[in-house]
Amino acid sequence: DAGVIQSPRHEVTEMGQEVTLRCKPISGHDYLFWYRQTMMRGLELLIYFNNNVPIDDSGMPEDRFSAKMPNASFSTLKIQPSEPRDSAVYFCASSSHRTKGTDTQYFGPGTRLTVL
Amino acid sequence: DQQVKQNSPSLSVQEGRISILNCDYTNSMFDYFLWYKKYPAEGPTFLISISSIKDKNEDGRFTVFLNKSAKHLSLHIVPSQPGDSAVYFCAAGLSGTYKYIFGTGTRLKVLA
Protein backbone atom coordinates (compact mmCIF):
# COMPACT_ATOMS: atom_id res chain seq x y z
CA ASP A 1 0.00 0.00 0.00
CA ALA A 2 1.42 3.39 -1.03
CA GLY A 3 -0.08 5.24 1.92
CA VAL A 4 -1.55 8.70 1.71
CA ILE A 5 0.00 10.66 -1.14
CA GLN A 6 0.26 14.44 -1.12
CA SER A 7 1.51 16.82 -3.77
CA PRO A 8 3.40 18.99 -4.06
CA ARG A 9 5.77 18.35 -1.14
CA HIS A 10 6.92 21.95 -1.19
CA GLU A 11 5.22 25.04 -2.54
CA VAL A 12 6.58 28.56 -2.60
CA THR A 13 4.30 31.25 -3.88
CA GLU A 14 3.75 34.97 -3.68
CA MET A 15 1.06 36.67 -1.70
CA GLY A 16 -2.19 36.90 -3.64
CA GLN A 17 -1.60 33.80 -5.74
CA GLU A 18 -3.87 30.77 -5.75
CA VAL A 19 -2.49 27.61 -4.19
CA THR A 20 -3.87 24.11 -4.67
CA LEU A 21 -2.77 21.21 -2.52
CA ARG A 22 -3.62 17.65 -3.53
CA CYS A 23 -4.23 14.43 -1.68
CA LYS A 24 -4.82 10.81 -2.59
CA PRO A 25 -6.10 8.80 0.40
CA ILE A 26 -5.44 5.16 1.07
CA SER A 27 -7.63 3.02 -1.15
CA GLY A 28 -10.77 1.88 0.65
CA HIS A 29 -10.65 4.57 3.31
CA ASP A 30 -13.90 6.48 3.66
CA TYR A 31 -12.72 9.40 5.82
CA LEU A 32 -10.37 12.14 4.67
CA PHE A 33 -8.97 14.94 6.82
CA TRP A 34 -7.04 18.14 6.10
CA TYR A 35 -4.81 19.52 8.88
CA ARG A 36 -2.52 22.51 9.18
CA GLN A 37 0.55 22.44 11.41
CA THR A 38 2.09 25.59 12.86
CA MET A 39 4.48 26.08 15.75
CA MET A 40 1.97 28.11 17.72
CA ARG A 41 -1.15 26.01 17.25
CA GLY A 42 0.18 22.54 16.54
CA LEU A 43 -2.01 20.34 14.33
CA GLU A 44 -5.33 22.00 13.54
CA LEU A 45 -8.14 20.12 11.83
CA LEU A 46 -9.40 22.22 8.94
CA ILE A 47 -12.07 20.00 7.39
CA TYR A 48 -12.99 16.36 7.04
CA PHE A 49 -15.01 14.30 4.59
CA ASN A 50 -16.92 11.05 4.89
CA ASN A 51 -17.69 9.23 1.66
CA ASN A 52 -16.65 12.35 -0.27
CA VAL A 53 -19.11 14.58 1.61
CA PRO A 54 -17.79 17.41 3.83
CA ILE A 55 -18.86 16.69 7.40
CA ASP A 56 -17.23 19.45 9.41
CA ASP A 57 -15.49 22.51 8.00
CA SER A 58 -15.54 24.55 11.19
CA GLY A 59 -11.75 24.61 11.24
CA MET A 60 -11.39 26.33 7.89
CA PRO A 61 -9.89 29.69 8.85
CA GLU A 62 -11.71 31.90 6.37
CA ASP A 63 -13.44 32.01 3.01
CA ARG A 64 -10.11 32.07 1.25
CA PHE A 65 -9.86 28.36 2.03
CA SER A 66 -11.92 25.75 0.21
CA ALA A 67 -11.73 21.97 -0.05
CA LYS A 68 -13.28 19.48 -2.41
CA MET A 69 -13.42 15.73 -2.76
CA PRO A 70 -14.78 14.95 -6.23
CA ASN A 71 -14.25 11.19 -5.78
CA ALA A 72 -13.04 8.64 -3.26
CA SER A 73 -9.44 8.82 -4.42
CA PHE A 74 -8.77 12.55 -4.66
CA SER A 75 -9.14 15.73 -2.65
CA THR A 76 -7.91 19.29 -3.01
CA LEU A 77 -7.38 22.14 -0.58
CA LYS A 78 -7.32 25.53 -2.26
CA ILE A 79 -6.25 28.89 -0.88
CA GLN A 80 -7.22 31.92 -2.91
CA PRO A 81 -5.76 34.47 -2.45
CA SER A 82 -2.86 33.23 -0.36
CA GLU A 83 -1.31 35.33 2.43
CA PRO A 84 2.01 35.04 4.29
CA ARG A 85 0.20 33.88 7.44
CA ASP A 86 -0.96 30.80 5.53
CA SER A 87 2.63 29.52 5.55
CA ALA A 88 2.54 26.16 7.32
CA VAL A 89 2.73 22.43 6.72
CA TYR A 90 -0.55 21.03 5.46
CA PHE A 91 -1.30 17.36 6.10
CA CYS A 92 -3.88 15.10 4.60
CA ALA A 93 -4.95 11.97 6.49
CA SER A 94 -7.37 9.16 5.83
CA SER A 95 -9.17 6.62 7.95
CA SER A 96 -11.61 3.76 7.67
CA HIS A 97 -14.61 3.06 9.86
CA ARG A 98 -13.85 -0.58 9.25
CA THR A 99 -10.65 -0.37 11.28
CA LYS A 100 -11.79 -2.26 14.33
CA GLY A 101 -11.11 -0.91 17.76
CA THR A 102 -9.32 2.21 16.72
CA ASP A 103 -9.95 5.50 14.99
CA THR A 104 -6.42 5.61 13.65
CA GLN A 105 -5.75 8.20 11.01
CA TYR A 106 -2.98 7.66 8.48
CA PHE A 107 -1.16 10.82 7.54
CA GLY A 108 0.55 11.80 4.33
CA PRO A 109 4.03 13.37 4.31
CA GLY A 110 2.64 16.90 4.17
CA THR A 111 3.00 19.91 1.91
CA ARG A 112 5.21 22.71 3.19
CA LEU A 113 3.69 25.96 1.97
CA THR A 114 5.60 29.22 2.00
CA VAL A 115 3.81 32.39 0.98
CA LEU A 116 6.16 35.31 0.38
CA ASP B 1 -8.68 28.28 23.01
CA GLN B 2 -6.64 25.09 23.15
CA GLN B 3 -8.74 22.14 24.28
CA VAL B 4 -5.70 19.88 24.29
CA LYS B 5 -2.49 21.17 25.82
CA GLN B 6 1.03 19.88 25.87
CA ASN B 7 2.77 22.32 28.14
CA SER B 8 6.31 21.04 27.62
CA PRO B 9 7.55 22.00 24.17
CA SER B 10 10.67 19.89 24.59
CA LEU B 11 12.18 17.14 26.72
CA SER B 12 15.65 15.59 26.85
CA VAL B 13 16.23 12.15 28.34
CA GLN B 14 19.23 9.88 28.60
CA GLU B 15 19.14 6.63 26.65
CA GLY B 16 17.77 3.78 28.74
CA ARG B 17 15.86 6.05 31.11
CA ILE B 18 12.13 6.70 31.21
CA SER B 19 10.55 9.44 29.08
CA ILE B 20 7.29 10.89 30.36
CA LEU B 21 5.26 13.12 28.08
CA ASN B 22 2.21 14.89 29.44
CA CYS B 23 -1.04 16.10 27.98
CA ASP B 24 -4.03 17.91 29.48
CA TYR B 25 -7.49 18.36 28.03
CA THR B 26 -10.42 20.53 28.99
CA ASN B 27 -13.47 18.84 27.49
CA SER B 28 -14.84 16.19 29.87
CA MET B 29 -16.84 14.69 27.01
CA PHE B 30 -13.70 13.42 25.30
CA ASP B 31 -13.58 9.63 25.56
CA TYR B 32 -10.83 8.58 23.19
CA PHE B 33 -7.21 9.63 23.27
CA LEU B 34 -4.29 8.97 20.97
CA TRP B 35 -0.58 9.60 20.74
CA TYR B 36 1.17 10.18 17.45
CA LYS B 37 4.87 10.36 16.73
CA LYS B 38 6.33 12.60 14.05
CA TYR B 39 9.78 12.54 12.50
CA PRO B 40 11.07 15.53 10.48
CA ALA B 41 9.73 15.77 6.93
CA GLU B 42 7.23 12.97 7.58
CA GLY B 43 3.59 12.85 8.57
CA PRO B 44 2.56 11.84 12.09
CA THR B 45 2.22 8.10 12.68
CA PHE B 46 -0.11 6.48 15.17
CA LEU B 47 1.59 5.21 18.31
CA ILE B 48 -0.94 4.17 20.93
CA SER B 49 -4.47 4.98 22.04
CA ILE B 50 -6.69 4.63 25.07
CA SER B 51 -10.41 4.65 25.66
CA SER B 52 -11.92 6.39 28.66
CA ILE B 53 -13.11 3.04 30.02
CA LYS B 54 -9.48 2.23 30.78
CA ASP B 55 -6.85 4.01 32.81
CA LYS B 56 -3.85 2.32 31.24
CA ASN B 57 -2.86 0.82 27.92
CA GLU B 58 0.47 -0.78 27.19
CA ASP B 59 2.21 -1.66 23.94
CA GLY B 60 5.77 -2.83 24.32
CA ARG B 61 7.91 0.03 25.59
CA PHE B 62 5.00 2.48 25.38
CA THR B 63 2.34 2.93 28.05
CA VAL B 64 -0.38 5.54 28.13
CA PHE B 65 -2.03 6.48 31.42
CA LEU B 66 -5.34 8.29 31.66
CA ASN B 67 -6.56 10.22 34.71
CA LYS B 68 -10.10 11.25 33.85
CA SER B 69 -10.72 13.22 37.02
CA ALA B 70 -7.67 15.35 36.35
CA LYS B 71 -8.28 15.39 32.59
CA HIS B 72 -4.71 14.33 32.12
CA LEU B 73 -2.92 11.69 30.14
CA SER B 74 0.71 10.74 29.92
CA LEU B 75 2.88 8.64 27.66
CA HIS B 76 5.70 6.65 29.24
CA ILE B 77 8.52 5.26 27.14
CA VAL B 78 10.72 2.72 28.90
CA PRO B 79 13.53 2.30 28.11
CA SER B 80 14.04 5.32 25.89
CA GLN B 81 16.08 4.82 22.73
CA PRO B 82 17.73 7.35 20.40
CA GLY B 83 15.28 6.32 17.67
CA ASP B 84 12.46 7.62 19.88
CA SER B 85 13.69 11.17 19.27
CA ALA B 86 10.74 12.82 17.55
CA VAL B 87 7.82 15.17 18.15
CA TYR B 88 4.96 13.55 20.03
CA PHE B 89 1.39 14.79 19.64
CA CYS B 90 -1.49 13.83 21.87
CA ALA B 91 -5.02 13.99 20.52
CA ALA B 92 -8.45 13.74 22.12
CA GLY B 93 -12.00 13.46 20.90
CA LEU B 94 -15.25 11.56 20.89
CA SER B 95 -14.94 7.96 19.70
CA GLY B 96 -16.71 7.27 16.45
CA THR B 97 -16.74 10.91 15.35
CA TYR B 98 -13.29 10.69 13.75
CA LYS B 99 -12.70 14.30 14.78
CA TYR B 100 -9.69 14.74 17.06
CA ILE B 101 -8.16 17.80 18.64
CA PHE B 102 -4.37 17.70 18.66
CA GLY B 103 -1.97 19.34 21.06
CA THR B 104 0.99 21.46 19.98
CA GLY B 105 3.46 18.62 20.41
CA THR B 106 6.47 17.84 22.61
CA ARG B 107 9.88 17.39 21.04
CA LEU B 108 11.65 14.45 22.69
CA LYS B 109 15.40 14.09 22.39
CA VAL B 110 16.95 10.87 23.64
CA LEU B 111 20.64 11.30 24.27
CA ALA B 112 22.97 8.39 23.54
Most extensive contact? A-B, 27 and 25 residues
The number of helices of chain B is 0
| Helical coverage of chain B, percent range | under 10%
Overall geometric form of chain A: globular
Helix- and strand-based class of chain A?
Answer: mainly beta
Radius of gyration of chain B: 13 Å
From the alpha carbons, calculate the radius of gyration of chain A and give it in angstroms.
14 Å
Number of separate strands of chain B: 11
Structure at a glance:
The complex is a heterodimer of chains A (116) and B (112). Chain A has 116 residues and is mainly β.
Describe it.
The complex is a heterodimer of chains A (116) and B (112). Chain A is mainly β and 116 residues long. Chain A contains no helices and eleven strands. In chain A, the strands form two sheets. In chain A, strands 2, 4, 5, 6, 9, 10 and 11 form a seven-stranded mixed β-sheet that branches. In chain A, strands 1-3-8-7 form a four-stranded antiparallel β-sheet, with no helix packed on it. The model of chain A has no long low-confidence stretch (mean pLDDT 92). The mean pLDDT of chain B is 94. The A-B interface holds A 4, 31, 33, 35, 39-45, 48, 50, 56, 91, 93, 95, 97, 102-110 and B 2, 6, 32, 34, 36, 41-46, 49, 89, 91, 93, 95-96, 98-105.
